[in-house]
Every structure is written in C-alpha cells, then in structure tokens.
Amino acid sequence: MILVFGGGFLVSVKCKNGDLETPWIRQLPLPWRVLWVMALLFSTGFGLRAADTGGAFQVQNIRSLDEIVSLDSGLNENGGAHTWWITTEPLDPVAYSREFLDVADAAEVGSDQWFAVTVPGMAEASGHGLESHRSYWYRKAFIGPETLRGEVSVSLGEISDCDQTYFNGVLIGSTGVWESDRAQAYDRVRTYFVPESLVRKGERNVILVRVKRYFSDSSGLVQGRTEIGYSVPMTRRHYMGLLVSLLVFPFYGAVGCFFLFLFCRRPREIENLHFSLFVFLLILWLICRNQIKFELGIPFVPLKQFEYLCLFIMPMFLYAFVRSFVPVVMDPATRRWDFAVAACYLVGVVCEVIVLVANQPWVGFFLFKNCISITWIVFTVSAFRLMVRSARAGSSDARAMLVGVGIFMVGVFVDLLHILDLHTLPILTNFLLIPLVLFLAMILANRFVRLANEVQYLNAHLQEEVQSQTRELVAARDAAEAASRAKSEFLANMSHEIRTPMNGVIGMTNLLLGTSLNSEQREFAEIIRQSGDSLINLINEILDLARIETGKLEIDSVAFDLRKVIKHSTQTLTAKIREKNLQYSEIIDERIPTSVQGDPERLRQVLINLIGNSVKFTPKGGIELRARLLEPSPDEAHADSFLVEFAVEDTGIGIAKAKQASVFDTFVQVDSSSTRQYGGTGLGLAISKRLVKLMGGTMSLRSVEGAGSTFTFSVALKPGGPIKPVNADSRRLPVAAPAACLGSILLAEDNAANQLVCRRILERLGYEVESVTDGSQAVALAAKGTFDLVLMDVQMPIMDGIEAARAIREGEKGVRIPIVALTANAMEGDRENCRKAGMDDYLPKPFQWTELRDKLDAWLKKNQE
Questions:
Q1: Which residues contact 158 (CB under 8 A, 6 or more apart)?
Q2: pTM as predicted
Q3: How many CA atoms lie within 13 A of 524 on its CB side?
Q4: Comparing C-alpha atoms, which of 141, 90, 139, 86 is closest to residue 116?
Q5: Where are the beta strands (DSSP E) in 590-727?
Q6: Long-range contact list for 859-863, CB < 8 A, 24+ apart?
Q7: Is the model more confident about 680 or about 486?
Q8: What count of other Cβ atoms lies within 10 Å of the Cβ of residue 505?
Q9: Is the dihedral of CA 556, 557, 558, 564 positive or negative?
Q10: What is the rounded distance in angstroms from the CA atom of residue 32 to the CA atom of residue 39?
Q11: Distances in whole angstroms, Cα of residue 370 to Cα of each of 164, 319, 363, 420, 428
C-alpha cells in the first residue's frame, strides 16, 4: 500500500508537469509498469485530490454518441484530469449559458469568478475557500456531435446533496427540495433526459449544475462519472447495472441460509450463526448502498440510518465469528483486547443512538465517518490478532481464514475510503465476500475430510470394538443372570429352610394354645406365637421386595368392604396402642362407597406398615387415620376408577428434613446408629410406596422433627359389587375331634415336626390321616383310591411332590382326587409349577389352622358336588 501511494504521488507530480505521456513509462520493467498502473488508479482519488488545476480552458470535442461518452476525459493545459469549473457567485443560468455559448472565447466569461476543480471530489478540497459557502455552481462544456438520432441523456454521478441541472440554459432535472435543511439523496446517481432539439450539433454545449452544501467536508460532485449518450442505451445500461449488482445478492443469500442451516443442524457450532447473520447484514447494507433503493420509494433518511446501523453491527458478528471459529487462548492479553473491543462497541452504541435520533444530517455523517470507522478498525485488528495467533499455533483453518478475511477486509477498507471520498474506485464489497466464502468452503471441506478420515478410521476399528464390547456385554449379561439366579435360588432356599421349621413352631404354638394352660404358660405361648408372626412378616417383606423389583408382583381386584379392611388393620395394633397409652382416632369420608374393588390384602399391608410405624415412633400423644374421596383418577389406565386418599398423622419424634428424601429407600432407617431405640429392617416404607404405585396412587411425607409426621397416600379403587363373605373365625383350635369323621386325608410330609403338626390339626378338625415321608409312598397309597384329598409337600426325598402329583394324575382312572400343595416354597412361580404338575391348590408354610380348614372345606365340598 505504501508503494502504491508513493507511486500515486509520483504520477501526480508527472501529471502536474505534463509528462503523463512520456516514453519513460514504456522503459520500465513489467512489474514496475504494473505498479505504475495501480498507482495511476489510486492517483485518481489521492494524487490529484488537492491539486490546483487552474489554467487555460479546453473544451472536449465529441464526434459521435454511438457509444456512451465520458465527459471526464478532457484535460486542461496543465494536465488536470476530470476538470470541472466551479463558482460560488450567484448567476442566472439562462443568461449565463446564452453568453457562454455566444462568446467566441468562452474561457473569458466570468473567468475571475470560476476555479478549476477535480471532479468527482470534494469541492472544499480545492483550496479556494469554498467551504464557507452554502451552494456552488459547476460548469462543464463540450462540443456536440455533428449528427443526432434521438433523445440524449446526461449522467452526473453522485451529488452531495441537492441539485438543479441546466443544459444550455434549460433546466433538465433536479433532485431534492432546495428549501429543505435535511439531506435527501446524496448517494443517488443523476440521469437526466436532454431533448434532441436542445443539443447544439457541432457547436459548444454547456452543463451548469447548482449544488446545495449540507456537509462541512463533503459537498458537490463527490462520486461517479459524468457521461452523455443516447437515452435508450443509457437507460438500458442503468437498469442492467442494477440487475448485475443484484445478481450477487442471491449468492450471498444462499450462503447465509446455508450457514444458518448448518447452525440449525448443529447448534453448538455458534460460529455458523455469527457468519450467517454477518452475511445477512452485509446484504442489507449493500442494498442500502445500491441505486436500487431509490426505486423502492422509501424515504432516503431512514434508509441511510439503517445503512449506518448495518455497517455498525457487521464488525461485531464478524469478530464473534472469528473468535468462535479459531481456538482462543484466554490469557490476560486476550482479556484486555476483549475489554477494549467491548468498550469501543459500547461507545459506538451510544453514538449510533445519536445517529438514529439526530435531526441534523451532519451529526450522523460525522459519527459515521469517525465512530463507525474506528469500530471497524478495532474489530478488524482484534480479529486479525486472533487469527495470526492461531495460525502461529499451527491451525490450518486459521491460516485459510486469515487469507479470506484479509482479502475481504482490504476490500472493506478500500470501500470505506471510497465512502470518505478519498478515491473513485468502484465498490468492491459486492464481490469480495466471494473469496471469503470460498476460503470458508475450503475450511469446511478440510473439516469434512478430517471427519471422513476419522469415520474411516472408526469404521476400520468399529467391528473389532463391537465384537469386544459384545463379548463384554455377553459376559456381563451372563454374570448378571447368574447372579440373579443365585439370588433367586438363595431366597428360595432360605425361604424354604426358614418356613419349614417356622411352620412347626407356629403350628405347635397354636396346638399348645388349644390346650389347658395356666396364665403364665399362655403368656409364654403367646410370646412365641407373636415372635413367629414377626419373623414370617419379615420373610414376606423380603419376598415382596424381590417380586416388586422383578415386576412379578400382581395386584388383585376383588370386591371388599373398605371400612372393614381399615378396622381389621388397626385391630392387630390395638394392644400396642393401649400399651403406650396413645390416643387413636379414625375419620372416614361418608362419600366413600361401602363396597369397592381393589386389592384388600395389599391395602391392609400398607395401612399396617404406616400405622405400625406411627405407633413405634410416637412415645406420647396420638395417631389419626383419615380417609377421603378425591376426584376421579387422571390415569388413563384407571379412567373408570376413583381415588381414595389416606393420611396417617402422628405426634411422634418426626423426621429431619435432610433424611426425609431417603425414608422410602430400601433398608434405610432414620436412626441407623448402633444405639438406636427403634428396631426394624427399613423395608416397610419402601414396599408400601411401591405397592401404592402399583395400585395407581402416590405416597408423600410431611414431617417436622420433634413435632410428628404425616404419611399421605392414595389408591385407585373401582365401585365394587357383592362382597364375598370371608370366614374370619378366630376361635382357638378345637381341643378334641368331633364325633363324626369328615373325610380321609393322605399327608405326604418328610419333616417330622411338620408332619406331627399337620396330623394333630387334621385330627382335631375331624379327619382321618394317613401320613408318608416321600412321594413314591404317596403315589402308591393314592392309587388305592381310598382318600378324599392329598396334602402334598414339594421337597421330599426319593420322589418330590411335583413328580408324585404327575404320577398320581397319570394313574387316575376314574374320580379325580384333589391335591393341595403344602410347601415352604413361596417364591414367584412356585404356585404355577404346582398347578402345571396337576395340583389343584396351594397353601404355603407356615399356615394358620383356619387357612388349612378353609382349603379342606372348599375342595371336599366341591368334590362331593
């Protein structure tokens, strides 16, 4: 750039001395000649800008208008190119034109009042004190062609701002309102029609242009060329020029939409959004700079303000794009640069607000030339700094972007100089985005190639990785299945091994309680029975948790009396409530139907757990159970049901807020220390919450430490039908058998204690009993057909109960004998296995004598029918 400007200065000196056509130019080497041509281009805007082009007057001779002729090609005797004459004196354009055209020596007409200036350019730069005047008169003379074949047009380029143009003393056009104080169209290229009769063929013609001054440092004919030609080709060229300039907009629009599409597909790559917004703003700015804006009928001032706004915002998005595209090291220097950029932009925002609200055009122009230019410089320098640092760090993307953005920014800088009237080269920004887009496309292509290589590499190793992962997954699956099987087997074995002796303990305790005991003996027996019940409840909770975790726990749906279920749930805890001297109350909504349909046993289990916890953790005060009817269930799966909400509120010790979220976890207790006062496994609340969820409801907790807790849960119930009567006979086991025999029972049980318990219970119920210790003996006796029912244990030596049941069914020839499984196998699937083997019913150990009685009554009655 320094060489170019220096060459421009040398050329300007040669032009001053009249040596522009000297042969020494041809003697220069080719690179120097190229440099000279570049200097000649820049000299148009720089080298001759402030030159005094005074001297003798020379009129340009136009021989033909077959092609559009430039009126800027005339030279005076001192070599001044693009020369117009200017005066600030008032004159009558009609009288002056007549005098100028009639006098033989036209140069003498008002020669003391006219000064030669370079056009296009700022009139104030001529050095003749024109900056103190509000209006100027420009003059251009030429000799017309000998012949004409149509209407002529004159193009004057851009005039800042208002004008009145006369051709041979006749007003051929004007722009703007002369009396207005606001800028109106200082970007507009004037093209005025000249009637054929007005042109003096083969004689001198004169163009007078009156210009009103709005700006202190930019007035008059500031940009563009002065041309003359036939109206049709000039009009065609004007609109073709508009069309050509608009052709680049679809390309830029496609580029902006493409990068916006990339951002929509990958929102994390914010640089694509920054670049698309920059491109869209550039399109708007180019439209505002294009002559097409004058064809839209929009007022000039809002368009110019919008143009300034676009030009002000564009560098922010360009800098943000560069900053997010190249890797940035956040060191103190980078933070200082960011702070400087933000401060500069904040000042620019304030100035831009002033531009938008100012009523004086010079205010906006001044801020535009200074603040916005400085903003562009700061953003450009910051962006180049980031790209250079990244390029030095080895980023190939940064190097390519440095070249593309560099080319674009050079064009922007040259266009800013054009806007500031420092040269007359055409606007380059219309086309310089293309190399930037090409370099970005190259960067994206490089990224795509790198990504393709990575994908190819991954594909090459993917199969091996998949096989390795598959082997690991298969091993993990097998290990998980083995662990699950081991867990299930362990639970099944532990359940069987615990239930088998517990059946003997509970059975013998019930038999003992059926005998004559004194008060102390009965108390001891009751303690044994309660301890056995607690141990069985613990085993059942563990089994329920296992079923819930595996999704195999099913919820029944039978008709029952909700109020009786609530009453029975509290009866088991009445003794403990009385023992702790607690107040207990129930509030049941009268709107709740008497008969509902659901799972009464699971509901009773939840109520017992919650009320039992309240009794356990309430040293004094009371407990209240509330049940109320809610709105119909919002769950689509229970659309025909209604919700009943239960709340168990106590005045106990409460739960700390930090521990409330974990009380529903398995094996978790509020007080887990070794000195805790309250027992329990921590399974009750976890199982209760999951059971409530299975019943279509939710459970929540509200508690204040030291003040008590309230557990609230809801269940989905349906309107119930007739309630099946439940045999709730709680009388003690009869001491002696009834006089009449009720039937003959075959008992297959290998455990001596359980065999004794079952025999004694059956005998007291009035049945004859034949007992065996393995399945093969049971098959042999059952073949005789002398028994009314078979009680079959599952795990027995020689032949288990499953094989024995199949053998009995295969050997039956007539009447089907009922077989009831009497087993300690209480895991999921045990009932189904028994039914598949041919058994009719299932009674898990340990059992109550009433449960055995009900089973016998049901099957013997059905068999008799």
A1: 120, 186, 187, 188, 189, 221, 222, 223, 224
A2: 0.47
A3: 5
A4: 86
A5: 595-598, 622-632, 642-650, 699-704, 708-719
A6: 859/789, 859/818, 859/820, 860/742, 860/743, 860/788, 860/789, 860/818, 862/818, 863/788, 863/789, 863/818
A7: 486
A8: 18
A9: positive
A10: 10
A11: 31, 19, 11, 10, 21
CB neighbour burial string for 788-810, b if at least 16 within 10 angstroms, e if fewer: bbbbbbbbbeebbbbbbbbbbee
Tokens describing residue 61: 């001779």
Amino acid at 351: C
Going by C-alpha positions, the residue among 58, 60, 91, 57 that lies closest to residue 73 is 60
Q: Could you tell me which residues come within 8 angstroms of residue 462 by beta carbon, excluding any fewer than 6 positions away?
A: none
Rounded Cα distance between 259 and 253, Å, is 10
Residue pointed to by tokens 């304030």 = 350
The backbone torsions φ and ψ at residue 273, rounded to the nearest 5 degrees and listed phi first, read: -65, -45
| Chain Cα centroid distance, residue 654 | 42
User: pLDDT for 146-191, tens place per residue?
Assistant: 988 888 999 888 887 788 999 999 999 988 877 776 667 777 888 8
Cβ–Cβ under 8 Å, residues 627 and 587 = yes
Cα–Cα separations (whole angstroms), residue 545 to 62, 124, 328, 844: 107, 96, 55, 18
CA distances from 618 to 574, 623, 699, 704, 712 (A): 14, 8, 20, 13, 17
- Whole-angstrom CA distances from 606 to 139, 610, 692, 697, 777 are 106, 6, 8, 12, 44
H helix and E strand count, the chain = 21, 24
Cβ neighbours for 591, distance < 8 A, ≥ 6 positions apart: 628, 629
| Cα separation values, 414 from 35, 307, 312, 864, Å | 17, 18, 17, 113
Q: What is the pLDDT of residues 621-669, one digit of tens each?
A: 889 999 998 866 555 555 578 889 999 999 888 888 878 777 877 655 5
- Helix 300-325 with 396-419: angle, nearest 10 deg: 160
Pair 192, 174: CB distance under 8 Å: no
CB 161 within 8 A of CB 365: no
Chain position carrying tokens 């009558």 = 92
Please give the residue that has the higher pLDDT: either 629 or 290: 629
- Closest to 151 (Cα-Cα) out of 237, 70, 239, 228: 228
Residue 31 has pLDDT above 90, yes or no: no
Q: CB atoms < 10 A from the CB of 27, how many?
A: 9
The pLDDT tens digits of the residues spanning 293-341 come to: 877 777 877 787 788 778 778 888 877 877 776 666 666 766 777 777 7
CA angle 725–726–729, rounded 5-degree value: 130
Angle at 803 between CA 797 and CA 807, to 5 degrees: 125
Token duo for residue 12: 């300007």
Quick one: which of 68, 366, 43, 367 has its CA closest to 232?
Answer: 68
* DSSP summary character for residue 218: -
